[in-house]
Amino acid sequence: MSFKEIAQIAGSAMAAQTVRLNTVASNLANADSVAGSEAETYRARKPVFAALMDENGDAAGGRVQVLDVVQSAEPLRKVYEPGNPLANADGMVFYPNVNQVAEMTDMMSASRAFETNVEVLGRIRGMQASLLKLGES
User: Fold this and answer.
1) 31-82: per-residue pLDDT in tens?
2) HEC profile for the chain?
3) Measured between alpha carbons, how far is 3 from 115 in angstroms, rounded to an integer?
4) 57 vs 39, 43, 113, CA distance in Å?
5) How far separated are the first and last CA of the chain, in Å rounded?
């Protein structure tokens, strides 16, 4: 496997983790939003990743691809707040199905995965520099 292929794999992982961090940010930003009906309520989003194998079908050379960003199927929170201006005729409002603790955990995991792939790229650059120095001797 060439340095270029390794860099492409790490780059695809960084791109995927960026999508993951974007969905976490969106979920956390909307965690306390309220709506007067289920249809109008924000639903948590999650990215769906898939491994792309190399041309030989080898998983060791596989990159990651974001297939889609899907809405969570978890139930919404329905709360009785008759004084809320968005309340429906029954005095109910709907809150998103965002679990803030799970989102923070996901954010930490995505950040760490991104940092790890930055480290991989740094190591590749160092190895390439070492090879160039070898050629100077």
Assistant:
1) 999 999 999 999 999 999 998 887 776 656 688 999 999 999 999 999 999 9
2) CCHHHHHHHHHHHHHHHHHHHHHHHHHHHCCCCCECCCCCCCCCEEEEEEEECCCCCCHHHCEEEEEEEEECCCCCEEEECCCCCCCCCCCEEEECCCCHHHHHHHHHHHHHHHHHHHHHHHHHHHHHHHHHHHHHC
3) 19
4) 43, 36, 24
5) 26
Pick the closest to residue 3 from 120, 132, 133 (CA basis). 120
pLDDT range class, residue 137, cuts 50, 70, 90? low
Q: Identify whether the C-beta of residue 62 lies closer than 8 Å to the C-beta of residue 9.
A: yes
Amino acid at the residue 69: V
Residue 61 φ/ψ region, left for φ over 0, alpha for ψ in the -120 to 50 degree band, beta for the rest: alpha
Q: What is the pTM of this model?
A: 0.84
Distance, in Å, from the CA atom of 84 to the CA atom of 89, rounded to the nearest integer, reads 11
Distance CA 6, CA 2 (A): 6
Amino acid making up residue 77: R
